Q: What sequence folds into this?
């Protein structure tokens, strides 16, 4: 069977979702993965979009996170304050998807700035919803192309927290979510060991681990 | 009391140089026509607040209207970066004040409800809290540790585009309702633009759909297609192609200037802009109806 690395990445991300999960969906690949999961093994997947849409059944692939196709036929629409407080902060979200320019070995993510914050070398888009999704979703999955520059020793800026400097630190911080459970890339999958370090646990066919 | 007036008058009367402006709408109902009118009237030194500055603030920054932006995500949604905003920040020419989405809208919520500050549960990522001194932590007075707090955001003026409003400014919104209500209640003045101006009876027939009460509103303007290239649920689709084109336009300052000259300074108002977009664009953005079922409020 012919497939691209990106398609396999989408399938791998979809397989991480369980039937009945409440998932905070991002645009792009996570959106594809969620829709694939709902049409296959997880028909009861509840898709929530940060724009304030619950139970979306999009008929087309949205370019943006606030596409009108998300609204038509959904079960509920609410304000952004409500989606982040009643749903995410309250602990009603099982799964969040994250991405970013830099990801360190403990799954901390930088989506804010390369270089110094006040004198940026490259200014990136910033947190959006990710700071709180990373903290409060029960499980987080990081989706990213597997490139050396994306996996530095330390991220320049912690936009969202993974296991900080080790799993015990996240536990001590008292945030409610379980942290990053996997990093899905175009080459394979990394998962945290007992200390929270991301370890390569699967390679795509044809990739020399 | 009718507050109906042309958009040109509303902008000249209610938006001053130096104002903090909140053009509401998360992807949906972004009031581009008002941004363009502000550019035409050459407002300066504005503080532009929006969760997602989007193309509307990028165009206002490009036109020299802004001295500062307050935001939580500066990207071209689904496309990539906002090239002009990004390079202005990198060059140190544009002041920034940055939050997460939840922080940004919590500030509006505090502003809208008259609170001195608003608490949020802590996250494990501390760098933004360190970078922005408005983030503080206080001890939960009921025990249980610390909470993160932010002060209210009370813009000088909120701009809110809606599907329909009556002449007093009572406004119906449906579809994604982002932060329109909070922006209106938080701000000192409110400009409503509407696809349709309707009789009060239409508003009163469905009061649950009224997001903004007329007494908050300073001006009501009839501006069909105000949101293009954003969209109005049920009226026209989002012009995704333009969001992709903008990424190419902004590759050079010359092209950006040429765009503003042709599509902002070169037209009198939104009606002319819409006509200039032409039939192909109008057809592409048409939406088929999908009606809700009427509900019964009961006669009492």
A:
């Amino acid at each position: 069977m012919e497939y691209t690395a990106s398609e396999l990445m989408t399938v791998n991300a979809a397989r991480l979702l369980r039937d009945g999960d409440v998932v905070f969906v991002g645009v792009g690949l996570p959106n594809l993965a969620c829709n694939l999961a709902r049409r296959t093994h997880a028909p009861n997947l509840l898709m929530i979009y940060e724009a304030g849409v619950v139970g979306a059944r999009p008929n087309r692939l949205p370019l943006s996170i606030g596409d009108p196709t998300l609204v038509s036929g959904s079960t509920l629409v609410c304000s952004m304050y409500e989606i982040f407080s009643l749903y995410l902060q309250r602990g009603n979200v099982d799964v969040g998807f994250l991405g970013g320019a830099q990801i360190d070995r403990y799954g901390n993510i930088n989506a804010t700035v390369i270089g110094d914050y006040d004198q940026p070398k490259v200014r990136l888009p910033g947190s959006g919803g990710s700071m709180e999704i990373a903290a409060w979703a029960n499980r987080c999955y990081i989706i990213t192309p597997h490139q050396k520059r994306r996996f530095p020793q330390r991220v320049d800026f912690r936009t969202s927290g993974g296991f900080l400097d080790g799993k015990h630190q996240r536990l001590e911080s008292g945030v409610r979510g379980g942290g990053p459970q996997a990093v899905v890339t175009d080459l394979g999958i990394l998962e945290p060991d007992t200390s929270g370090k991301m370890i390569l646990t699967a390679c795509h066919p044809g990739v020399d681990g | 009391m009718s507050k109906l007036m042309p958009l040109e008058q509303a902008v000249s009367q209610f938006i001053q140089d130096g104002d903090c402006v909140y053009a509401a709408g998360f992807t949906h109902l972004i009031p581009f026509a008002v941004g363009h009118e502000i550019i035409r009237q050459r407002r300066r030194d504005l503080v532009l607040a929006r969760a997602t500055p989007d193309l509307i603030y990028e165009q206002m920054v490009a036109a020299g209207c802004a001295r500062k932006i307050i935001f939580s995500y500066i990207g071209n949604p689904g496309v990539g970066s906002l090239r002009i905003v990004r390079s202005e920040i990198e060059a140190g020419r544009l002041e920034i004040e940055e939050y997460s989405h939840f922080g940004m809208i919590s500030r509006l919520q505090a502003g809208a409800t008259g609170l001195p500050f608003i608490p949020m549960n802590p996250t494990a990522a501390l760098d933004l809290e360190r970078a922005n001194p408005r983030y503080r932590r206080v001890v939960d007075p009921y025990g249980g540790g610390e909470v993160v707090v932010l002060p209210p955001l009370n813009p000088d003026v909120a701009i809110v585009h809606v599907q329909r409003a009556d002449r007093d400014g009572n406004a119906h919104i449906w579809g994604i309702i982002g932060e329109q209500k909070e922006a209106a209640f938080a701000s000192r003045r409110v400009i409503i633009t509407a696809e349709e101006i309707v009789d009060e009876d239409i508003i009163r027939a469905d009061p649950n759909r009224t997001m903004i009460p007329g007494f908050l509103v300073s001006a009501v303007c009839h501006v069909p297609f105000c949101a293009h290239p954003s969209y109005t649920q049920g009226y026209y689709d989002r012009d995704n192609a333009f969001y992709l084109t903008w990424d190419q336009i902004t590759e050079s300052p010359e092209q950006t200037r040429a765009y503003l000259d042709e599509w902002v300074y070169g037209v009198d108002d939104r009606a002319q802009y819409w006509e200039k977009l032409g039939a192909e664009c109008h057809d592409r953005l048409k939406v088929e109806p999908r009606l809700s079922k009427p509900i019964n409020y009961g006669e009492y």
